[in-house]
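sorry to bug you again but im stuck and you know this stuff better than me. below you get a single protein, a line of residues and a line of whole numbers that encode the local backbone shape. mainly i need to know what kind of three dimensional shape the backbone takes. anything you notice is useful, everything is just below:

***
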Amino acid sequence: MPAKVRNYWYGYGFHQDQHDTETLRMTLPSTPTDPAGHYLLGRHVLDLTDQLNASASYEEAAYLVDQVLEPIDGLLERLAEFFEAAAEKANDSGREEGLDLHDDLQEAAATVRALGEDLHVVVDRIHALASPPRLSWQPGVADPHATTPGVPRPPAAAPPSSAPAPGRTR
């Protein structure tokens, strides 16, 4: 089974029957910090990070960042929903500790959403990195002929010489 297909199935909870001898042995994707491969979602985020690091263009990088920051279907929004669900589960206990935990998890959801709101223009800013840089106004102020196309520059003045001018004596 190709690794891409295997990882797809593992990411969605598919586990091979250990008594099945007809199919190839599959192993969970692992990391040095999770050699047993228990944290599949964390592994998916690591894969996304690796893809971002290997991206060949700013457009590709922006697409990958959008996977995290998209305000409706992105990873941060889903993480906020996860914290809200955990808050409701804690609240269902009816115990005081559960109510305190509910409040903490609701605050975590709000923090994650606020982070997404703070970073809402990042994808556009990454896209902008792909376009050529704009000329600054500063070179034009320092040398008005520097940004004027087709206008010859005035010749630079010769530095003063310490030798006496020709034909003159002391």
